Amino acid sequence: KEITDAQRNGGMSTITLEPTPVRLYPQAGGAPHTSLAAQMLGFVNAGGSGQYGLEQQYDTLLAGKPEVVSVDPNKPGPAGERIIDPGTPGTDIQTTIDASLQLQVEQEVFATWLADKAKTVSAIVMDPKTGAVLAEASYPSYDANFFGQVATQDPSRFKDPIISEAYEPGSVFKIFTASAALQTSTTALTTKINDTGVLQLPNGQEVADADRKAKGWMTFADIVAWSRNVGVSQVAFRLGKSTASASAALYKTWQSYGIGQPTGIDLAGESAGIARDPAVAPWAQIDLANASFGQGVSATPIQIMRAYCVIENGGLAVTPHIANLDPRGSAKPSASGGHQVISASMSNSLTGLTRHVVTTVPSYDQATYIPGYYVGGKTGTAQIWDPTLNKGKGGWMDNIYNYSFFGWVGTDTPDLAIGVVIYQGTPTKV
Questions:
Q1: Backbone CA torsion sign across 348, 349, 355, 359
Q2: What sections of 78-146 are H helices per DSSP?
Q3: What pLDDT digit, counting tens, does each position of 292-306 carry?
């Protein structure tokens, strides 16, 4: 301060001071030693460049163009400076995030991480009609004000699992199998299917329900509600006259919902996931069965969230976004303006199916009940393959799973789309 005052008063005219800008993240996050929305925002590094998340995606806009100054060595101090290019100031960006909701989501994510002894927990809340992200959080997270320490201790925390962590989602994919069945008119929601608990395939492989117990004849809607693998596999087999044609029909449905494709969200580091094309590498019957209930495919939470938004908003494609500007600085439209993926009537049927899921199974009904609101969605519990088990031969992790729920809440129609993923969680109920 004394040097600054002296220079201002002309006492140190030969000295030039250059400020060093530092980005601050003043809002505390919902977990200890975190800043709010750290993984979504990213940070500005010591060199002044944005890294990860929104900071990297919009770095050029946020940073602007620096001032260019020529310095005459024969004229020390400010007298020898001449501005060649005044530069341009950075652009302010307003996000779609609701800060209060963001904090609450982070608190819930942290509490779930503790309760389930999970590797990671992620959650996202979106407007299904526009794709605007209202909150998204994962734990473990970090404090962006101390990114240097995090880089030294655990740089993996910089990555946002919602856009970068592709995982086998399990039974949340049964909704897409239902969509394929309804679109091909091969199975209706009222069609009766015999759930035998275990289904033996011709080559000796088997498909089994989690409890391996038969529930007998059930409507397809109840098969989805009670998440019966055997029943959904039978529906997948009916999608075509052969395994190849049925596989093609299911894969085509995945493609229409954007599975295996980046969503285009305006955050740096998005992964596309892995959805194997049966036209390139043919699926065996067991592959088709596994695919029907979300095994043998990997997707990111944001990818699945976008697909569920299609189901919930009347069938329109949306592009998830965090900023109200596009990368060129233009205002982002309030509506998605996306193409029609499924018909409005199909969207209504599938939304009704998600409502049927949470009202048919008593435990779901109790857990999702919110007075004055309707809720719909689908759960998923997926086994996790660990290639290091059995002396490198690989095997399924014992009593550790990936848990998912994707759904919606609204007073009449879906107002908010919600997705939660618990990675490598330990069951808290038997």
A1: positive
A2: 99-116
A3: 999 999 999 999 999
